[in-house]
Amino acid sequence: MLLPWKNVLENVLFPIRILRRPRSEYIDRAHALIELVGLTGFEDKRPHELSGGMRQRVAICRALIYDPDILLMDEPFSALDAITRDEMNDALLDIWQRYTKTALFVTHSIREAVLLADRVLVMTNRPSTIIEDVTIPFVRPRTNEISETPEFMQICSYLRSLIEQGHGRGRQNPGTRATVRKSRVVQGTGR
Amino acid sequence: MRGRPQLSRTVGLPIATAVMLCVLWQIIVTANGIPEYILPAPFDVGRTLLASLPNLLAHASISGTEAVAAFLLATLLGFVAAAVLTYSPLLRDIFYPAIVGFQLIPKVALAPLFIVWLGTESASRITFATFLSFFPVLISTLTGLQNADPTAVRLCRSLTASDWQTLVSVRIPFSLPYFLSATKVAATLAVTGIVVAEFITANAGLGFLILSSGPRMETLTIFAAIFMLCIVGLSLYGTVALLERAGRRWFTGA
Prior knowledge:
heterodimer, A: alpha+beta, 2 domains, five-stranded mixed sheet, 6 helices, 43% helix, B: mainly alpha, MetI-like fold, 11 helices, 82% helix
C-alpha cells in the first residue's frame, strides 16, 4: 500500500520521515534501492501511474530503507499475476543477495517458498500448527531456473504431501469442512 | 474513446439554455401583461440591477463578507473538532450522538435564539451561519479521518509513529477529499445562514434588502437582490470548488 499523494521517492522515504531520521543520509540509499528493483526513472511518478508489480517493488524499497532487522512479508505477491510474481521473486532474490536481510515470508505458493527460502515451515490450520521444518539446500545466488531441476520438484511434492496430510487430519475434526483454507507455507530466508 | 467535450458545448449549451429561459420569461410577462409588482420581466430586472448597482454592491459586500467569515470559521472549527474527536474516543462517544442529533433538526429554526443570545450585530449572524455550515464539515471530515486506509495506519504503527504523526502524515491527507467535498456544502450553507439571519435582524445586507422590499411591493428590487445573492453564492462556491479541484489533483496526482 502506497500513499497516493506521494511520488515513488517520497513513498520510499516515508519511514525516514516518521522515524525522524535525517533525510539527506538516506537519499542515496533510496535511489540505490529504486535502482535495484528496476524503477530508476520512476522516482517522480505517483502510485496510480504504476502497475501492481511496480507498486509492490516500491513497497519493498520502503520496507528496506530504514534497515530493519527483519522483513515481515505476509503474502506480498498474492495479488499479482503469475509473470509479475516471477519477476518479483527474482527481484527479491537480488535484494537478498545485496542486503542478506532475514525475512519471514508467508505464502500459499509452494514454488515461491522453495525458490526463496532457506527454511520452510509448513503450517496446517485449525489450529495453526507448524508440522514440518524443511531446510532448502540450494546455493545462492539463486534464479528462477532452479525451479526446473528434479531436486526442486522433489521438495515441492514433499511439501505438498505434508500439506495434504495436514488437511486430511483437519477433516477428521468435527465441524471442519472439506473447504478449509489451504495451509500456509511459512518460510524464512535466513542469514 | 471520446475526447474532451468541446468547450463550446460544455459552456455554450448552459448559457444558451439560460438565455432561452430569460427570453421565454420575457415573452410570458409581456404577452400576458403581468404587472411588475407580481413578476417583473428580466429586461426590467436588468435595468434595475444596473441603475441601483452601487447600492446593491454595498448590500452584497456586507452579506458576502459575513458569509465568507462564517464559511472560514465553520471549515476551521469543523476540521479541528473532527481531528479532536478522532483522537479522543471518550469525547467522540460523548458528543457524536449529539452531533448526529443536530444534523437531524432543522437548524434554521434556531436562528432567533442566536439573535436573543448574541444581539443584533453581525456577530450573531456570523455565529448562526457558522453553526449551520459547521456540521457537514465536522461529520464528513470525521468520516474521512476514520476511513483512512487501514494498511497505511498499520504502516505508521509498525514504524512506531506517534498519534500526532499518524494524524498529520496519513489521516489528514486521506480525509482531504472528504473535507473538500464538505467545504462545498459549507459554502452554500454559509450564504443561506447569513440571509436567514438577515431576515430576522439586520439593517443592511441582501437578506435585509429582500425582506424590506417585500411589504413595499418592490418586486424589482427583490429580483435584483436575488440576482446579486446568486453572484455572491456562486463566487464563494466557485472559489471553493476550484480549491477542491486543486486539492484532489494534489491527492491523486491525476
